[in-house]
Amino acid sequence: MRDDIQSLRGRLSEKREVIARQRDEMAEVGAAVERLGRTVGGLGERAAGARRLAHLEASRTHRSAIRSVNATLRDGAFVSDDAGLVLEEIAWLDGEVATAGDTIAVLSALEQRRDDVRGGVPTLWPVHGPVTSPFGSRISPISGEEREMHPGIDISARWGLPVTAAGNRTIVFAGRDGGYGGLVIVDHGAQISTLYGHLSALYVREGQRVHRGQPLGAVGATGRATGAHVHYEVRIAGSPVDPRRFLN
């Protein structure tokens, strides 16, 4: 009997040592999770701020939504309070990381869209040459008497030189117009479009995507023109603005 009691005491002592080590290890795990939680919490706050700036829907992740696992059965085994707390923290971290990951994915898409819009802004000159007629009111070059609103700029250039796209995006018109002659219109997004008139040749078609610097046609004097040049317009929401506001 004494031997049995002594053996039980030895086994109990070993179990206590194991439990003590497990508590120490759990405390270390808990501390690590807490540090990670502070880091992820900061990331979540920054992600939430970014979502607010981007006018995105706020995250629905809340601390109160964490499922309590303290003193419950998990896979048939009893979970201690310490383990339960750590599991709660891990569950919360999992949700925060998922939310932050979703935010980063959305913001990445927005960044790509911003770059796309930025690439569409018409900043390149369609052809190199002197501006022979600026934007604004002028005497009609056809009648030589009446004043008229000139909705773009005329850039003088040699007949047949390539006329290039001032920015990226899509051709919405490529054809003939009574006044503009050979005409190409590019939609750059963000309600910005550019017009290239009096072209002697067209190199693009409607619906085609083009990049800045890509040839659209050739300098000419088609339509109501008195000499070889390019009539270049920039329109915002359909209204002409001075192209020099955009040109480099």
Topology, pairings included?
Blueprint: H1 2-53, E1 73-74, E2 77-78, H2 81-120, E3 131-133, E4 136-139, E5 147-150, E6 153-156, E7 162-164, E8 169-177, E9 181-189, E10 192-199, E11 201-202, E12 209-210, E13 215-218, E14 229-236, E15 239-241
Antiparallel strand pairs: 1-2, 3-6, 4-5, 6-14, 7-13, 8-9, 8-12, 9-10, 10-14, 11-13, 14-15
Descriptive report:
The structure is a single chain. By secondary structure, the protein is of the alpha+beta class. 37% of the residues lie in helices and 27% in strands. The chain contains two helices and 15 strands. It has helices at residues 2-53, 81-120; strands at residues 73-74, 77-78, 131-133, 136-139, 147-150, 153-156, 162-164, 169-177, 181-189, 192-199, 201-202, 209-210, 215-218, 229-236, 239-241. Residues 59-78 have low confidence and may be disordered.
What is the gist of this entry?
The chain has helices at residues 2-53, 81-120, and strands at 73-74, 77-78, 131-133, 136-139, 147-150, 153-156, 162-164, 169-177, 181-189, 192-199, 201-202, 209-210, 215-218, 229-236, 239-241. It is an alpha+beta fold. A hairpin with a 2-residue loop joins strand 1 and strand 2.
> In terms of structural class, how would the helical and strand content be classed?
alpha+beta
As a whole number of angstroms, the C-alpha radius of gyration is: 35 Å
Number of helices: 2
Profile the largest sheet. 8 strands, antiparallel
Tell how many strands the DSSP assignment holds. Answer: 15
| First-to-last CA distance | 99 Å
Beta-strand content: 25-35%
- The structural domain count equals 2
